[in-house]
Amino acid sequence: GAKINGQPDDLDMNLEDFVNRVNADLINKIANLVSRAVPFVHRNFDSRVSTLPDAVQPLISDIQARVPQIREHYEQLALNRAVQEIVAIAEIANKYFQDAAPWDVVKTDRDAAQAICTFAVNCCRTIATLIKPVLPKYAADVETILRVPEADFEDAAGFNLTDHELGPFERLVERVDPKRVEAMIED
């Protein structure tokens, strides 16, 4: 491992914490969103997302404002901080999806329910793009499910995934490999 101030143990210990936290928080929250939104779109809207609801504009602004900070954290190798910000985005998206309750809305207003899902799916794409440095395979799996080309940080939060057909849902499974993270820190 990398030695900081001649104390290799610190980093290794924090690395383990970091990896465990990434596994728990990030993966659970992204998987939760993808595994709720995508199958719902398949079942109810012929696998298609539509347009964004007007009400989400403030959420989009909040998410977009976090992207430059996340990039900066990565550049400074403050991976914990980067991940915390990405988890915050996943929480915004999950809370919106839960509160907007498309499974109730769909009974009375299909278009509104589809729009709710469109926002959730766009958030999945944003999160996938942002986690790529720490979870490249996981990010690629999400992009495959969403049928989106690989994006970079410039268009991470474009929220331009509209009138678009999703690919088949696959269960997302990945654990972070501590050696990968270590290699990245040493690069």
Automatic annotation (TrEMBL):
Top-level division of the source organism's lineage: Bacteria
Any one Gene Ontology BP term: methionyl-tRNA aminoacylation
Cellular component, GO annotation: cytosol
Keyword Transferase: no
InterPro entries: Anticodon_Met, Met-tRNA_ligase_1, Methionyl/Leucyl_tRNA_Synth, tRNAsynth_Ia_anticodon-bd
Pfam families named among the record's database cross-references: Anticodon_3, tRNA-synt_1g
Statement: the UniProt record of this protein carries the keyword Metal-binding: no
Name used for this protein in its record: Methionine--tRNA ligase
Organism ancestry: Bacteria, Pseudomonadati, Nitrospinota/Tectimicrobiota group, Candidatus Tectimicrobiota, Candidatus Entotheonellia
